[in-house]
Amino acid sequence: MQFTPENGRWPSPFNTAAELSRLNGRTIRVADCTLRDGEQQAGIVLDRDDKVEIASALEELGVYEIEAGTVASSEEDREAIAAICELGLKAKISVLCRGLEADIDMAAKLGVWGVRLSFPISDIEREYKLKGISEADYIARMLALIDYAASKNLAVVYSPFDTTRANLPFLRKVAAELARREAVDRLRIVDTTGCALPEAIRLIVENVKEAAPGLAMEIHCHNDFGLSCANTLAGVMAGADYVSTTINGIGERCGNASTEEVVMALEVLCGYDTGIQLSRLKEVSELVDRLSGIAVHANKAVVGYNAFRHEAGMVVAGVLKNPYTAESYDPVLVGQKRDILLGKKSGLVSVKYKAEKLGLDLTEAQMAQMLQTIKQEAVRLKRAVTDAEFVALAKAEIQG
């Protein structure tokens, strides 16, 4: 039987149960918010040069929009946003504004394409952040802010944060009013505390689509329960055409949906061409890792150091015959490479592979002895054995 991957990708055939045809003819766009929500992760400080460098990398990656920061954050942030606007990027540049005309004024002066009006919608947020504003007054204030931004020639992404804890009839009313007025570029569904299940995201998006046909939607999910990527995909499958994500998933508390994870899930699992330069994902991840000071954990999906490294003997035996026995896509797609490690879980096939790769002439008996030596050394070191250590151990074995 002949097995052939398609374009370096081999996902589960059961993914068709997700009715992937719903993506046909649609345009899914990445609105990356690494420079805004990403920097909001506790302890991260990105200066002007950092932000310009990351924005340039995101442009080369091919994202549709860059959410460049919060205008009210600091003078340095505003200078960074202005500098990004001056780069003349193809990506649209937007900024986060609170529900204040003063924020909109600052945004207009910076030369951005648009603003993201962040105005809380759930009962708890309205009670404690908007002094218990009524539903009628909320809508009136929302429309006044949108009209004010429009008067400054700014596109508006309306972002009613804590959407996933909103009163659903009220959310439908807000969406219907936005659609009726044709007032905004899109509505952003925000899972502010990362507290929704994928089914909840689907329900919300479908309700908004029903209440406001034609209103474009963006999905912005936090990762407090490790569901941000799944929730973002649920939003897309339900009808959202913009994904709000961050490189490496950095962001408030437990982070946001990861740009690289969402993109590769769409590409590999859904068979959707995002237009993103996939081979640059690892490179951009390393840039954000370095500039943010937040190290990517080793087993991070897509860009992690261990994402395509194999040690267990049974796994390696399959990988060396056909990598798709243990991987669903070729690591080259994302700028990664496959590696075989020698350690406690290794088998003889790994030793043979490494010996051949490193040009070591070992007999069968010597390789069997080397396997035991490697296992003992790995236990002593509490890690895998490096290639240099393997060579040294092998030479000692050969010399007797």
TrEMBL record:
One of its GO terms (molecular function) is homocitrate synthase activity. It catalyses: acetyl-CoA + 2-oxoglutarate + H2O = (2R)-homocitrate + CoA + H(+). It comes from the Bacteria. Its EC number is 2.3.3.14. One of its GO terms (biological process) is carboxylic acid metabolic process. Keywords: Transferase. It is an enzyme of class 2 (transferase). Residues 28-282 form the Pyruvate carboxyltransferase domain. InterPro entries: AIPM/Hcit_synth_CS, Aldolase_TIM, LeuA/HCS_post-cat, PYR_CT. Pfam families: HCS_D2, HMGL-like. This protein is a Fe-Mo-cofactor biosynthetic component. Belongs to the alpha-IPM synthase/homocitrate synthase family. This is Homocitrate synthase. It comes from Borborobacter arsenicus.
